[in-house]
Write a structure and sequence with these properties.
By secondary structure, the protein is mainly alpha-helical. The protein has 13 helices and three strands. The chain has one domain.
Amino acid sequence: MPEKDFYYRTLPFFYEKEKVALIQTRWGHINGNYSLLSRVQSIGMDGHFIIEQGARTWNGLYMNFNGTAGIWRKDAIIDAGGWHSDTLTEDLDLSYRVQLKGWKTKYLSDVVTPSELPVDINAYKSQQHRWAKGSIQTAMKILPQVFKTKDSLIKKIEAVIHLTQYMVHPMMCILALLSLPLIILLRPVVISPSFTMIIFLFLIFLGVFAPSLLYIVSQTAGYNDWRKRCFFIPALMILGCGIAINNTKGVIEALLNIKSDFVRTPKYGVIKRGRNKMTKHYLLPLKSTFISEILLSIYCCVGFMQYTNNKRFIFGPFLLVYGIGFFYVGTLSLMQIFTKKIKC
């Protein structure tokens, strides 16, 4: 839903000396305050648009077009070989191909284009599955070409991290599944309290502080009520854990070259509660992954209790977060099939 002055604020950048292939603007959120699900999604999107996209383009790294809220130069599309349908993220694929051809990208963080976030958990899962599968498909297709370039090592490493970021979800699932056997089979190891504290602080920094800082900075840069919004960051982390099975499925399908159709993310025109335009027949069908999510949530909670019973308090909290996340996503997926109004 671009503003009236969208072209006025974007088109002039095509006339710079650099060969600019695309101009990407920042997504806004017309329904960011609709529900808990939309609130945490908006924070996650802000981290990507306010921090990640800006950091990539301003440091000369590979940046991707986000599928909407932007403009393309026709000549750049033709030069890169046009749009391809061999990945589910054709926008990401084309973005890399034009940059490999020498074209530049432009990101305008101060031009905010309002958009609608999915208010249905199943629509959100479908979107995330598409992004996860498409990113890995693009990585398998594009990274060999990136490695052959004369780009700096930093630029190549960032491209690898960028295109394979969804590999974290299979790793999360493996960690969750191995936690309980490890606590049962491994003998207790006696370590000093000081060393325990060092390990605890290190894990907190990697798993909590580092990503939280990214989202805190994005909220302070984008909103006056950033303090209030930051209270929802823990919920974002819980959702990020709960979506792991869904995204792992997408990653595995990409690695095994399993083809699937492009499933559109439904948009309902839902902005405020009480003005819901959603109809039940427009909902996406329920996927069987909700069963795995609920079962894995129970498994993680059992592991959490086992950890605490064995007085291993360092890793226990992570399993509890996993358990809450899987339970939230799984039960919400099931519940939304039986309701017309989506209040997540």
